[in-house]
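User: Please fill in residues for this 347-position structure.
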């Protein structure tokens, strides 16, 4: 069973109700959705326990570019780091490593993570602050990398940058806030990425997908799944997309996003599916600022005290690449707040 399907089935079972069938997008008043956001503690705890037991869903699982899924540092030495020097040393070494980040590590720039690494926070207090992680350089690829269970704060540039043709990356159960530029940017021909169960807050430019309007080398790349993330009061870019197709935005919780939810530009193809928007005046834009229009298909989303999404054209189906199940969008606030962020998985 896929992660999304397992959580939906578990929540429905504990709540004593069947999972509703998929429906067309609806626009409802806030009161109509109150029960979904106030699920019992037992349901929330069970949902959180379930997400900890599953692996990646989406593009990080696809067999492509010489890799069958994303395994990170599996099979390599397990090390624990507590300083910036140790972190930079191990993430830059050749070969697989499982790197456990313990406590708060202050860095002052971007540290390059090279291929076949798992960077995993220990417990609920692992933090990287002041700088960020860059997956790959022009000479050392950042393929097959996993980043989980880490709090990223106050980065001087991006908190995490997936770049320079990095592929097969899984970024899961992290907490991002207060960076200078993007919290999580994916660009420069990177591909086959899953971004799941993260909490983003206290920031404006959240997720960029695609380097610039002029960087057409991204066409045919940047295939990313964003699922079960919590965009908690962040302003914009959830994500802002150029050129990529398909981009699968699945079962995310958008709350109080001041500027907009998602922007599809420069002929990108984005499928918006099973998401929950609360107090978001502009859930989806087709084209944004000086960037030309993209394409958006939306289905089975909820818009509570929110505007009407813009849509256009058709998009390649993610099922062309992988199987998945959509959670009932009405359950998304409870499921996501229970399961997203750090300290929810046993690392």
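Assistant: Residues filled in for all 347 positions:
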């Amino acid at each position: 069973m896929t992660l999304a399907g397992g959580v939906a089935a578990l929540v429905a079972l504990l709540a004593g109700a069947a999972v509703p069938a998929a429906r067309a997008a609806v626009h409802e008043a806030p009161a109509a959705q109150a029960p979904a956001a106030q699920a019992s503690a037992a349901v929330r705890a069970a949902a959180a326990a379930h997400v900890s037991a599953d692996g990646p869903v989406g593009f990080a699982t696809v067999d492509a570019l010489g890799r069958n899924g994303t395994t990170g540092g599996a099979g390599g030495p397990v090390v624990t780091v507590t300083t910036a020097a140790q972190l930079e040393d191990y993430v830059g070494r050749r070969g697989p490593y499982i790197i456990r980040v313990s406590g708060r590590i202050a860095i002052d720039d971007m540290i390059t993570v090279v291929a076949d690494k798992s960077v995993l926070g220990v417990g609920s207090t692992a933090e990287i602050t002041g700088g960020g992680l860059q997956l790959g350089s022009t000479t050392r690829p950042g393929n097959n990398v996993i980043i989980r269970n880490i709090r990223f704060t106050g980065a001087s540039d991006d908190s995490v940058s997936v770049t320079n043709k990095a592929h097969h990356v899984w970024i899961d159960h992290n907490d991002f806030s207060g960076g200078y530029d993007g919290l999580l940017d994916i660009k420069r021909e990177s591909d086959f990425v899953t971004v799941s169960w993260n909490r983003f807050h206290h920031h404006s430019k959240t997720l960029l997908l695609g380097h610039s309007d002029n960087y057409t080398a991204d066409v045919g790349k940047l295939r990313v799944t964003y699922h079960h993330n919590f965009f908690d009061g962040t302003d914009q870019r959830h994500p802002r997309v150029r050129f990529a197709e398909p981009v699968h935005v699945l079962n995310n919780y958008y709350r109080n996003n001041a500027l907009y939810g998602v922007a599809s530009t420069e002929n990108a193809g984005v499928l918006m599916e099973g998401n929950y928007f609360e107090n978001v005046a502009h859930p989806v834009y087709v084209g944004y600022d000086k960037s030309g229009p993209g394409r958006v298909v939306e289905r089975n989303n909820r818009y509570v005290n929110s505007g009407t999404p813009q849509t256009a054209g058709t998009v390649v189906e993610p099922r062309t690449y992988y199987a998945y199940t959509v959670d009932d969008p009405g359950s998304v606030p409870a499921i996501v707040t229970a399961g997203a962020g750090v300290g929810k998985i046993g690392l």
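For context: The radius of gyration is 19 Å.
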